[in-house]
Specification:
This protein is an alpha/beta fold. It has 9 helices and 9 strands. The protein is elongated, with a radius of gyration of 25 Å.
Length: about 270
């Protein structure tokens, strides 16, 4: 079995230049150029010689080479026809690899597993673009593909989106997170101050004012002092115990002009005495 030759910027650029490859924005293409990341993915997937691995979107074959060395067999599904000649070159000599030029969403993966692995569970490994991650993963589950494990490297935006959606589902007054492109979690360090919540409240108000000045919409949704809400935020952000979230501020563009609510009540204003 040949040793991997790709995985660093120099070799990747050389291959792309050799074939005058042009990145297709519609496919969200991004190629791995870090051998440490590749090794980490292979270790995380715990691939052995008894495994059949389905790789979705092999690109120029960088991770495919590493998978080939670790697995019994690799099936790589690539949608971009322009990459097929490159894969034929970079995977020459990797005899346990089969490349399929097709949209993975249109491939009968379950049938493929029956043919190639006698229906035994497979491992899925992929470096996926943002826009297609959820449809691919959900498609595998909905079609009842026998899967032993899924190891996926996704863009940071995907992980962020999942965190926002998770908090939207679990925080009672933060449903707008579903449509928000981002959120700010205002936190205090309990080891540095007993009055952290006061400082954080002032900081939150400043964030809201700044968002308004920029023409953005922002909402203060409380986490502190409710333990269940604090736990939800912790689970989605990895906050240590000494860092407590005061609130989550969804930020985005408002649907339209919002009329300010007049909550001023002169009867609640007292002079000298209550």
């Amino acid at each position: 079995m040949k040793e991997p030759t790709l995985g660093n910027p120099q070799n990747t650029i050389a291959v792309l230049q050799k074939y005058n490859f042009i990145f297709q924005k519609k496919f969200g293409q991004n190629f791995l150029i870090d051998t440490h990341v590749l090794d980490k993915i292979i270790r995380a997937a715990e691939i052995g010689k008894d495994d059949l691995v389905l790789e979705i979107g092999p690109g120029i074959g960088t991770m495919t080479q590493y998978l080939s060395c670790a697995a019994g067999k690799v099936i790589a599904v690539e949608i971009d026809r322009a990459l097929i000649p490159i894969l034929e070159d970079t995977l020459d000599g990797y005899d346990n690899v089969r490349v399929i030029n097709e949209d993975v969403l249109k491939v009968d993966i379950r049938k493929l597993v029956e043919e190639e692995n006698e229906g035994r569970p497979i491992k899925v490994v992929a470096n996926l673009p943002y826009y297609i991650t959820t449809p691919i993963i959900m498609g595998l589950f909905e079609n009842h593909v026998p899967i032993k494990s899924i190891t996926v490297m996704v863009q940071k935006e995907v992980a962020d989106r999942e965190a926002l959606d998770s908090m939207a589902a679990k925080l009672p007054y933060a449903k707008m997170l579903t449509n928000a492109p981002l959120a700010i979690v205002v936190c205090g360090d309990t080891t540095r101050s007993s009055y952290w919540y006061l400082d954080c409240s002032a900081a939150t108000q400043n964030v809201l004012l700044a968002a308004e000045a920029l023409g953005l919409g922002a909402v203060w949704t409380a986490a502190y002092p409710y333990e269940d809400r604090i736990d939800v935020v912790r689970q989605n952000t990895g906050l240590p115990e000494n860092i407590v979230p005061l609130c989550v501020i969804p930020i985005g563009y408002p649907d339209g002009p919002q009329k300010a609510k007049d909550k001023f009540d002169l009867q609640r204003v007292h002079r000298n005495k209550y």
